[in-house]
Design a protein that fits this description.
7 helices; 131 residues; 2 strands
Length: 131
Amino acid sequence: MTIGELAAGAGLAPSAIRYYEKAGVIQAPPRANGRRVYREDAVHQLVIICFAKATGFSLTEIKLLLHGFPPKTTASARWKKMARGKLVELEAILTKARAMKRVLESMMSCRCRTLQQCAQGLARSEKKWRS
C-alpha cells in the first residue's frame, strides 16, 4: 500500500507517517520504484501510536512501547508496564493542577487595589503556591 493509502486508512497526513519514520517510531518500509510500499499491518501500528499519543505518551515512550521490549513480550505486558509509569506521572500532574486550582480560586476573593499590594500578600503566602 502507498503512503497515501496508509495515511487515509489511519486518518493521518502522509507527513505524520514520514515524521514517525524519521523519529524511529516506525520502520521505513521497502521501496518499489522509489515509493514506499507498506504492509497491511502498518495501519495497526499507527492506530497504536495514535492511541498512545491521545493518552499522553511521548514519542520516546511510544518508541519504547513498540520497540523497547524483548520480541516475545505480550502487548498486555507492554501496556501494563507503560501504563504504571504514566499513571504515576498523571497523578503528579493532577495533584499540581488541584493545588493551582485552589490558589486561583483563592485569588477570586482578592481585594487589592494595586499589583504591589498583591505582590506583598503573595510574598507572605509564597509557600502555599510555590511548589
